[in-house]
Design brief:
The chain is of the alpha+beta class. It is 44% helix and 28% strand. The protein has one domain: 2-Layer Sandwich (Alpha-Beta Plaits), CATH 3.30.70.100. Bound molecules: flavin mononucleotide.
């Protein structure tokens, strides 16, 4: 088993419909191929952690890199793992309002997410990076 984590910047013109399209096709591909992980999108930044069989994860990452919806992709970490952290999520997805915190629900969400980031097990370097940077993106 293998995991990788990257971050990137979305192109200016992407909207919720684009994200829905990505997620729909992701969930189909990911569940068929035993790929799991988590994608966070906030203030035009993506961070995603992907877990699964190494060859499939690498091929998927190559397709994600080529996707014109984002650029400045930085691979933060990749490593072999013993077990999955997002075993039941074909791709958990978190998004907050466009650029500003619009309402109390979003503040609650951020609070919960940040608490989760602190509490959740982070046995690998990729998971540490994923939760650390996600938290930074949400709090900056
Ligand atoms: C931020 C981001 C995350 C993505 N995550 C996934 C994913 O987890 N699984 C997936 O199958 N495609 C994902 N995609 C879509 C792929 O880039 C690509 O469009 C898809 O794998 C279909 O490949 P193809 O267009 O070469 O057929 C993601 C795209 C972006 C921009």
């Amino acid at each position: 088993m293998f995991e990788l984590v990257y971050r990137s910047t979305s192109k200016n013109n992407i909207n919720n419909d684009d994200i829905s399209i990505i997620l729909k096709s992701s969930r189909v591909f990911n569940s068929k191929n035993d790929i799991t992980g988590c994608l966070l999108y906030h203030n035009h930044e993506f961070i995603q952690i992907i877990e699964g069989e190494e060859k499939i994860v690498r091929e998927l990452y190559a397709r994600i890199e080529k996707n014109p919806m984002h650029d400045n992709i930085i691979l933060l970490n990749e490593s072999n793992i013993n077990s999955k952290a997002f075993g039941s999520w074909s791709m958990a997805y978190y998004q907050l309002g466009s650029d500003d915190i619009k309402n109390i629900m979003e503040m609650l969400f951020i609070n919960n997410f940040v608490t989760l980031a602190d509490l959740v097990d982070k046995p690998t370097h990729a998971l540490k990076l994923f939760w650390y940077i996600s938290k930074q993106l949400l709090l900056e």
